[in-house]
Amino acid sequence: MGASVPAGGMRSPADAAAFGREWAVVLADVPLFAGLSKRHLRRVAKMASKVRFPARTVIVSPRRRADAFYVILDGKAEVATATGDLIELGPGRFFGEMALLDSGPRSATVTAKTEMLAMSISQRQFRELLESEPKIAFPIMRELATRVRRLEAEA
Length: 155
Ligand code: CMP
Hints:
With 155 residues, the protein is α+β, with helices and mostly antiparallel strands. The protein is built from five helices and nine strands. Adenosine-3',5'-cyclic-monophosphate binds next to strand 5, helix 3 and strand 8.
């Protein structure tokens, strides 16, 4: 997936910028957006920002206000869970959905493991997106169900 990031996509550190229409092509490769038409992908690209994180940047933490949802486009992130597990996430994976869904605190700390390019969506737009694009809600619910199963198997 990393190879499909448009030239000029990686900007200066911690820079956030609006997506252009050309990013719909990149989003088409993200499993979360599978099944969305080109028109819908352009809508998602329009409401999202692209943000670049240097390696070792803490992106999400229980100590910080939860204000965005992220989809990894390039690079790797590491989730440090409350149970002490370390989970690596690569391109196409998402994080930051839980606190936006229940308005609770962040459940884990997510750090950029390498330099990382992500798409971010604000809390308000994340909710709007889920309401307008139910096809996106399903993979998010599936991921949450998988996590509950894993935790119950470990308990
Ligand atoms: P949120 O609680 O908003 O912020 C921390 C994020 O880490 C959380 O959303 C999930 O996206 C992610 N996360 C939490 N626990 C796990 C887990 N067990 N496996 C993968 N990702 C997780």
